Amino acid sequence: MFLSPFSPKNLVRKIGRLPSRIRRSLSEYRFYAYLAILGPGLIAANAGNDASGIATYSTVGAGFGYTLLWTFIPITLSLILVQEMCVRMGVVTGQGLADLIREQFGVRWTAFVMIALLIANTGVIISEFVGIAQASELLGISRFIAIPLVSALIWWLVVKGSQKKVETVFLLMSLVFFGYIISAFIAKPDWAEVAVNVVQPSFSMDTVYLFTVMALIGTTITPFMQVYVQSSVVEKGMDKDDLPLVRADVIVGTVFACTVAAFIVISTGATLHTQGITQIDSAATAAESLAPIAGVYAKYLFAVGLFGAAMLAMGVIPLATAYSLSEALGFEKGLSRSFREAPIFLGIFTTLILAGAIVAMIPGIPQIKLLLFTQCINGLLLPIVLTSIVKLANNSDIMGEHKNSLTFNIFAWTVTAIVSVLSLLLIGRTITDMLF
Fold first, then answer.
1. Which end of the chain is more exposed for a tag (fewer CB within 10 A), N or C?
2. Which residues are CB-neighbours of 231 under 8 A, at least 6 positions away?
């Protein structure tokens, strides 16, 4: 099993060898140990802020201003809850989510989940490549140059790089999200009004309002994020002693990702909504609309953020798919494996990258319809995955003393029920819109 020289265990050994008078303080050690653990939770949460997510948040800001900012509090808590169960299972069992689903629920159930996940993730991967195309064209670069170059870069990084190198690059990609925070400040919102809407829920029985809330909450927890975060923790070789730090990674990553999402709403609410621009069909449209109001720099910051977000997601989602299918089929997997050692794992990843790049370069690809279709598949899959996660986290045979407590279970089942209902209602609304 791969163990970084900067892992908490090795840090403990090195600290233990030092004379007591020069040993680091406990708080200092915890800081460096956290840096060694940092990765899966932060990457998974930020990958959720992909091209379609940015389009959704932009639409919320343009259409409703700041009135839906309060939803990010339950969104953040719900995502932390689910991610924590996944990393805890990974640390305690040493197995990925698909591995555990196959062992505990059988081959047929696993096959159904994996097929749905493959279909949904393929559609999302294509949409991420479309996001790359839109962002590159906003920056004056042809999609026929940007897509092949980015595809080759991501493929080379994953196939030829190590687990630590891939994770480091993904973490660096997350820095582009600061662009949205900066763009929000450029937009000069009324911060007092923002603060009120964060802590004071507002409700409306308007159909569009209700389904926008469903879209925000019901699509925040996506299946690929749970697969990726659990498999990454397993591959890093974390054990039970690392649980507090792994949980810290999940909390920090989720809070950061949801904060970025809130700032996207703030920036578009302060500019587009106040100018009466309420209809946004993509993140690229939002970026274009920002230019005459907040200036060209806001547009470019938004475009850079979209480019980086799509790059991060187009690396994470194929990896999550490759992890899940390889685990379900019992094949060798891992970022530190060569093509000879893990041909199925890296073959799936390569195929998804190629398929996404080729389809995204087709002129006139219907991105919105594609996103609606994948949203429906993900919406159907989400209740199944969440139910499986909670059941697995309650299984004393595999979790032992680390299974969910009664209090944790109450919150876990409540979140699962609410998110599942919202997701299914959103599917119904989406299908109705597509048909009528």
1. C
2. 90, 96, 97, 320, 323, 324, 327, 333
The number of angstroms, rounded, from the C-alpha of 265 to the middle of its chain's C-alpha atoms is 18
Distance CA 127, CA 310 (A): 9
Q: Report DSSP state, residue 176.
A: G
- The helix, strand and coil proportions of the chain, stated in percent and rounded to the nearest 5, come to 80, 0, 20
CA distances from 218 to 119, 222, 309, 409 (A): 19, 9, 20, 20
pTM: 0.82
Longest Cα–Cα distance of the chain, Å, equals: 74
Considering the domain delimited by 37-435, tell me its CATH architecture. Up-down Bundle (1.20)
C-alpha angle 351/353/359, rounded to 5°? 95
Contact 164, 4 (CB under 8 A): yes
The pair of three-digit structure tokens given for residue 134, joined into one six-digit string: 């839109």
Locus of tokens 């970084």: 4
Q: For the segment 75-85, what is each residue's pLDDT rounded down to a tens digit?
A: 899 999 999 99
* Pairwise CA distance, residues 86 & 320, whole Å: 13
Query: Are residues 241 and 34 in contact, defined by beta-carbon separation less than 8 angstroms?
Result: no
Q: What is residue 429's three-state secondary structure? A: helix
Q: 237 near 157, Cβ under 8 Å?
A: no
